[in-house]
Design a protein that fits this description.
Elements: H1 6-15, H2 20-38, H3 50-65, H4 78-86, H5 95-113, H6 127-148, H7 154-165, E1 172-175, E2 178-181, H8 187-198, E3 203-204, H9 205-210, H10 214-217, H11 220-229, E4 233-236, E5 239-242, H12 244-252
Helix pairs in contact: 1-2, 2-3, 2-6, 3-4, 3-5, 4-5, 5-6, 6-7, 8-11
C-alpha cells in the first residue's frame, strides 16, 4: 500500500469507534488482495475480495445497528445486509452507507461467487479484467470509508485517500520497513520510483536517501536537486514529494511495471 503504514489506517478506524477486529480484517484483506494482484495472481480465489466485502458489510452492520455478526459466524449474509441497508430511511444515513458502498460490495461479491462458474467458452480468460475491476472497487470502498469514518482531520483524510488510489509499485518489495527497488535503474529514476511509491504524503529526504543502494547515497541530494529543477519532485526543507509531472514520467516510461 505505498509507503502508508497500514497501522495508521487501522488505528484511525479504531479511534473512530470501529471494532478493532473488523478494522484489522478490513485492512489485512485489502492488502492481501492488492498483493496478489500485483504478483499477477489473477485467479478468482486469490483476488476475490470476499474477506474484504464481508468486513465492510459488518462495519456497516455495526454502524447502523450497534452490533455486528462475529467474523467466524457462517450465518452472516452479505445479501441480507445489503437489503437491510437499502431499507434505511434517507434521513438516517448518507447514501454511501445505504447505497453506494453496498452496491459496490455486491459487484465484488458477485464476481467472487458467480463469475468463475459463468465463464463463456470464447477463448478469452476474464480473470485479469475481473481482478482489475475488483482491486479498483476495493480501493474506492476503502477510500470512501476513510472519508466517512476516520478519526483524522479533513486534510489528513484527503491525504490518506490520495495514497489509497495511487498506483502501486509491484517492482518494490519492503524489507523491515524499507523499500527495495527490484530492478537496476539510473540513480535519478531510482529516486523517482521511490518518491512515486512514497505517494502524495511525501517522505523525508534523509529517509529517502537511506532507501537507496549505498553506491547512490553520496550523490542523493544533488540528484534530488536535479529532479526538483525538472519539476519531477517538489523539495522543500527536508520533505520530498513527487509532482504530477513526476508521476506521469514514471507511468509513461513504464518504470512501475511488474517484473
Amino acid at each position: 500500500m505505498s509507503s502508508l503504514d497500514t497501522s495508521t489506517l487501522e488505528s484511525g478506524f479504531v479511534a473512530a469507534g470501529v471494532p478493532s477486529d473488523l478494522a484489522r480484517e478490513l485492512i489485512e484483506s485489502f492488502v492481501e488482495a492488492k498483493r496478489r494482484y500485483y504478483l499477477e495472481d489473477f485467479m478468482p480465489n486469490a483476488v476475490q475480495g470476499g474477506r474484504f466485502a464481508e468486513a465492510v458489510m459488518r462495519i456497516l452492520e455495526w454502524r447502523t445497528t450497534g452490533s455486528f455478526t462475529p467474523l467466524a459466524d457462517p450465518r452472516f449474509s452479505v445479501e441480507a445486509t445489503i437489503k437491510a441497508l437499502g431499507g434505511i430511511a434517507v434521513s438516517a444515513e448518507p447514501e454511501s452507507v445505504r447505497l453506494h458502498i453496498p452496491r459496490s460490495v455486491r459487484v465484488v461479491y458477485d464476481i467472487r461467487n458467480k463469475r468463475n462458474t459463468a465463464h463463456l467458452s470464447d477463448g478469452i480468460d476474464p480473470n485479469v479484467q475481473d481482478a482489475t475491476l475488483v482491486v479498483a472497487v476495493l480501493s474506492w470502498i476503502l477510500a470512501e470509508l476513510v472519508r466517512l469514518y476516520h478519526a483524522v482531520s479533513a486534510a489528513d483524510a484527503q491525504a490518506l485517500i490520495e495514497v489509497l488510489v495511487t498506483r502501486e509499485v509491484p517492482m518494490i518489495q519492503v524489507f523491515d520497513g524499507s523499500p527495495r527497488v527490484l530492478r537496476t535503474l539510473p540513480a535519478s529514476d531510482h529516486l523517482l520510483v521511490l518518491a512515486y511509491w512514497a505517494g502524495p504524503l511525501g517522505v523525508d529526504r534523509k529517509t529517502l536517501a537511506s532507501w537507496l543502494p549505498a553506491s547512490m547515497q553520496a550523490n542523493a541530494l544533488r540528484t534530488l536537486g536535479q529532479l526538483h529543477a525538472k519539476h519531477l519532485v517538489h523539495l522543500v526543507d527536508s520533505l520530498v514529494r513527487i509532482t504530477i509531472v513526476g508521476q506521469r514520467s514514471v507511468e509513461e516510461r513504464g518504470l512501475v511495471q511488474p517484473l
